[in-house]
Amino acid sequence: MNKSEGLSEQAGNETSDLSKARLRAWLQILKVSRKIEGELREKMRTEFNTTLPRFDVLAALYRERDGMRMSELSKSLMVSNGNVTGIVDRLVAEGLIVRMPVENDRRASIVRLTPAGEKDFAERALVHESWVSELFDDLSSSDADALIRILRNISHHNEAPHHD
Amino acid sequence: MNKSEGLSEQAGNETSDLSKARLRAWLQILKVSRKIEGELREKMRTEFNTTLPRFDVLAALYRERDGMRMSELSKSLMVSNGNVTGIVDRLVAEGLIVRMPVENDRRASIVRLTPAGEKDFAERALVHESWVSELFDDLSSSDADALIRILRNISHHNEAPHHD
DNA sequence: TGAAAATATTTCAAACCTAAAATATTTGTG
DNA sequence: CACAAATATTTTAGGTTTGAAATATTTTCA
């Protein structure tokens, strides 16, 4: 029933020490993630006059200069399809991205940065990186590496199983 | 200008390796946090017929059996005051918590679990812990400790400075 | 070919979330 | 005491988010 419980687990011991340690780890991830996200949202608002979700979309499109489909975008950001529609609508209205038809598939559309969007993001990305670096001021190089390694293990375990 | 840059930083080197490592670490935190949060939200919905924010409120009140003020609640959950108002309204409607007047201060109110809310949460908390433990199945005891230590460092650095 | 299934996206309703304004009450100070 | 400042909470407007339903188009296959 509980995959996490190995040979040494005693019957009747409902929540093991390991299980409790994992819960604490999760709550700590959540705490840091909320705190940092809040700080960045505030910076985005006051200094860039934009929002975190919009910045995230621009970042994704900056990595894929030829553009992405709506579904690729939502998958990459790990948010729902419907959510991306609204954010893309606003970024289009701001002139930072465009929707383009897809050859041979009139259901889909490709979204990509406009020159203005590309310029905007390139400038802001550097400032964003400096904000993050300040917020993680106490994170040493070796701790950053350890953190990344541990978290990658967790993501890999929870990777969506792919269809074949 | 950039507190994170030490003596060895070269002028003109706009984003140091350390700064990039920290950015990668942040993006990885965000990725794990979104993935896990999504999985837990889905479980909450399908198996408990509730939402993560509501569960979080119950969890906070379960730790403080005598109840908390609205402001303590929002601070503890790191969300805005207005946000908590709505969630508390819904939990009151569900009969899981109650608002009580505060002696000598008619501005404030204290929120606490009803017996039903206490019972409900106690049962669900165990299941929740087992979900988390499964999602973190690959996280060893020592990695959990390392993760907690590193993340605590980060939270402490970003702790809100207190008023004296 | 032509209907059913699959796919890509948008729309919708409900909830969540924030920042700022509004409301109600208490505290501090002349 | 009066009344300004501070405090606790709610309300409001606008944006974000989800899951499900709706729409449009493409693919599959009998």
What's the CATH architecture name of one domain in chain A? Orthogonal Bundle
DSSP summary, beta strand count of chain A:
3
Strand line-up across the major sheet of chain A: 1-3-2
Amount of helix of chain A: 55-70%
Oligomer: homodimer
What does this structure look like?
The first copy, chain A, has 164 residues and is mainly alpha-helical. Helices cover 63% and strands 10% of the residues of chain A. In chain A, strands 1-3-2 form a three-stranded antiparallel beta sheet. In chain A, α1 packs across α5 (115-135) and α3 (70-77) crosses α4. Chains A and B meet through α1, α5 and α6 of A and α1, α5 and α6 of B. The first copy, chain A, binds a DNA duplex (30 and 30 nucleotides) through α1, α4 and β3.
List keywords for this structure.
three-stranded antiparallel sheet; 6 helices; globular; 164 residues; homodimer; 10% strand; disordered N terminus; Arc Repressor Mutant, subunit A; mainly alpha; DNA-binding; 3 strands
